[in-house]
Each structure stands twice: as structure tokens, then as C-alpha cells.
Amino acid sequence: MEKSMPKGFLWGGATAANQFEGGWQEDGKGISVPDVMTGGTKTTPRHVTDGILPEYHYPSHEAVDFYHHYKEDIALYGEMGFKVFRMSVNWTRLFPRGDEEKPNPRGIEFYRNVFLECKKYGIEPLVTISHYELPYYLAKEYGGWSNRKLIDFYLNYCKVLFEEYKDLVRYWLTFNEINILLMGTYGNLMGGGILPPGRDTAVGVLAGLDESWDNEQRRYTALHHQLVASAKAVKLAHEINPENKLGCMLLSRIAYPYTCRPDDVLKGQQTMQLANYYCGDVHVRGAYPAFAKRLWKEKGIQIPFENGDAEALKAGTVDFMTFSYYSSSTATNDPNVPVASGNMMRGPANPYLEQSQWGWTIDPKGLRYLLNEFYGRYQIPLMVVENGLGAEDKVDEDGNIHDPYRIEYMREHIRQMAEAVEDGVELIGYTVWGCTDLVSAGTGEMAKRYGLVYVDKDNQGNGTLKRRRKDSFYWYQRVIAINGAEL
Ligand code: BG6
Q: Which of 385, 312, 378, 444 is nearest to 125 (CA)?
């Protein structure tokens, strides 16, 4: 007999506008940073270009066209029994440049229609306000989040969201994986909207790419601006509607000590402290953690605290904590241990665990470990808002997609969530990543599919966009129906 999840558990799926929506120039939408990022694969890098260059394919432009398929997609979520649908608003649909005072009414209308559609099926929207898609204009003209002015532009955008959708949305996440700004290239681009110099730069998760344009001080500055913006948004949301529930969202990190040498154990602890708690503490406890002072000193970093920032952080703590979890990594300070290839976290490979086709370590028990870590430190409700397996899928002659590997991945992770609940963790929801196939953020390709719903589209942008239910669709439908009591 399996353990079922707590009553009212929010089962669902997650997406992000720039990877899902398409319609990049529809109804007055402006250009976002991902709109100038080209497609890549697991072996070829993406490029970020200064404007749109004719020789490239830009996957966000059409993505899988949720913009014109939202009714069909949400109906499929209703059929699966979703209680929650995590999605993001594309900032440029509401504010094409980002610094306008008044929003674009057609953008407002689109999301209202999406939320109303969710309501039809009793699905609660969970809205990420900023998921890797800063308006390109703000990136180019203002230097992205390295510029403090972005705080006010963001708050103006938030105010419009909280007022316009006051009766339709309860759950908000201020920034997707805010702590990605602690990392190089993608931290700059997707997290901070900080562009490389030049017309055409190869970027991505592949080793060996030029990261010389990275500037750590600038990233920590941008991150401070986001943390202040996030706290102010939390306060604003509560003022506009005390029923609003605001969450933070972290790219979670496990760094098991590679050996039991105390040096490796310390390295693992320091890696996890920085990755999880530097931002987690600000969001949940309202202040930077104790270890930050030494870190700033050793890195020679000045955090641009202005009058009122400390108070703003204190006043804007979140109601719940969310995170993405795909895999774990290891840590060592032994330079002779080789780093695993394909592993975004860049630690040495874990000999006890298998990897996905994209080299991501698969570690369901890590999820239980992490849930206990986070709950132990913060004791506020937790939600796993991204988890899933990116894999190649095949459509057979009958048009079916058999994906037992994805079912297996989800089953094992959900089992470990149930264990964590038994451990005493207050877990309120789970949204599987890319519930409908979408563009990969890391590689910009379609071949890396996470969906329970298949979309006919390839890496070059060809395909009918037809949706098909995979085996995992029916499996998840049953899991939701019996609240995880049988997996
Ligand atoms: C998370 C992001 O880091 O990982 C998503 O929030 C992303 O946007 C997901 O898609 C999976 O990564 P990838 O590179 O496989 O798309």
C-alpha cells in the first residue's frame, strides 16, 4: 500500500512563457531576451545575437504555440485532473519595452482568458512573474538587472498583475530560480538580462564556452536588486489582496561530499549553503545569511545596499517556498577528480547513480533529502514546482508514445515526496516540468522532451504542432485521481 499525499495536495504541471507560448510578435508583444537566443542541441551551443539574424532559428518565436492552443492545452490538463497549472506571464506581452507606465491591453486580455480557462476546469493558476524573459529593451538600454531602475519597472509590472487578476490568481512566484544569478553565463542572460558584448556569442551549458564577459560583482549586484524587488512585490501583493500567497523559487542544489574526507564534506556544505541558502534566507528569513559576509569579503564584492533595503527585505518574506529538482551533484576540492560531462552543476560524477540521456544524474532519494533540508531550516510550506525527465520520445505507427522511463522517473520521485511527508515535511504541491513538450531552456531544442503531452515539432521548427497523449498522461491522471495512493 502506497502512502497517499495530504488532502488538498496541488498536483499539476509547469511551463514557462518563453519556452511554451510562441506568438512572439502577436498583439503588440515586445522582444524578450530569449527571443534573441538561437536553437542548439546537447552538443552544439545556443547563440545570443544582437537582434534577430536571418541565418538562425529562434525557438521561442513559435515555441509550441500555447498562444493559439491554450484552450486545447488547458482542456488536456483538466482531463488529467490538474489542481494547479504553473505558468509564467511574459513581461513583454504587458510591457513591450519594459519601462512603459501603462500596460498593453491585449496582453492583459490574453492572460485573463488563460486564467478564465483554468477556472473552467477548477485549476488554480500558479503564476511565475518573471521566468527567464526580461524585455530585451531593458537588457540592452539599461544593462538588465545590474541597473537599480529595474526594481521600479518590475514593481509597476507586478502592480498591474496583482490588480488586474485580483480575483483570478492566488498563488504567485516572484522570480524563477532567482539563485541562477550565482552562476555564470545563464545567470547573466536568463537570470539577469545581462547581455554579452558583440553581435553573436555562443552560450549555454556546454563546457569550454567563452565566459570572459562574466563579471561576478555585476551578478551579485543584479541579484541584490532582484531580492529587493521580490520582497517589495510580496508586500505589495499582500496589500492589494491579503488572500494572495507569495512564494520564492530556487534552483535547488545537492552537493554530496565526493568522499568522507572532511575537506570534501566542508566543500559540499559550502556549495549547498551558497546555492540554496544565500537566496533562500533572504526570501524566507528576510536577511542575508551569516556566511554571506565572509563570502563577500573573500570575493571582494560590495552589495549595493541603499537606505531602506534591509527593512524592505524584512518586510517582504514569502508565504511558501518552491524549487526545481532534477538531479544531484557531488563536491570535492581534489583537483584530480574529473568533472562529469553534461552535468550542469559541474561536480564529479556520482558512481552510485545513473544519468539521463542529457547527462543529468537521476536521484529520487535526493528529493527526500532536500525536502527535509529545506523544511528543517525554514518550516514553511514547500512545493516542488519543477521535476521531470528530459528524454527523446518516439511516436509509433499507431500514433502512440510509450514512455515507461518517464513514468519510472516520476514514480520514484513521488514516492520519495511521500516519504518526506511521513518525515514531517509540509509539502503542498507538485508540478511536473514541461507537462506539454516545450523548448529546452538549456539547449534550445525540442528533442529534449519532458511532456506528458507530445507536440509534433522538431529542432528545426518543423511540425504540425498536433498534441498527443503519451502513456505518462494516463499514468499521471490515475495518480492524481487517487491522490498518489498507488503509483
Ligand atoms: C529549470 C528552468 O532550470 O530547468 C526551466 O526553470 C528549464 O526553464 C528546466 O526548462 C529544464 O532545463 P532544460 O535545459 O532541460 O530545459
A: 385
The four Cα atoms 226, 176, 191, 436 give a dihedral, to 10 degrees, of -160
E strands, 184-244, where? 200-203
CA of 311 to the centre of ligand 1 (A): 33
- Which pLDDT band holds residue 345 (cuts at 50, 70, 90)? low
Distances (CA, A) of 368 to 12, 37, 363, 373, 450: 19, 35, 10, 9, 21
- Partners of 202 in the β-ladder: 47
Which three cell numbers mark 195? 547581455
- And the C-alpha cell for 184? 555564470
Cβ atoms of residues 59 and 463 within 8 Å: no
Which among 472, 285, 268, 247 is positioned nearest to 369, based on CA atoms?
Answer: 268
Give me the chain's average pLDDT, please.
96
What letter represents residue 354's amino acid?
E
Quote the CA–CA distance of 210 and 431 in Å, as a whole number: 34
Residue 299's CB is within 10 A of a number of other CB atoms, namely: 11
Q: How much is the pLDDT for 341?
A: 59
Whole-number Å distance, alpha carbon 441 to ligand 1 midpoint, is: 5
> 368 CB contacts (<8 Å, ≥6 apart)?
416, 417, 419, 420, 423
The arithmetic mean of pLDDT across residues 74-79, rounded, is 98
Does residue 363 line the site of ligand 1, with CB under 6 A?
no
The closest residue, in CA terms, to atom 4 on ligand 1 is: 441
Q: Residue 73 is placed in which grid cell? A: 492545452
- What was the pLDDT predicted at 107? 98
**Own/partner long-range contacts of 54-61 (Cβ < 8 Å, ≥24 apart):** 57/460, 57/461, 58/24, 59/439, 59/444, 59/445, 59/446, 59/461, 60/18, 60/19, 60/22, 60/24, 60/32, 60/34, 60/35, 60/439, 61/22, 61/24, 61/25, 61/35
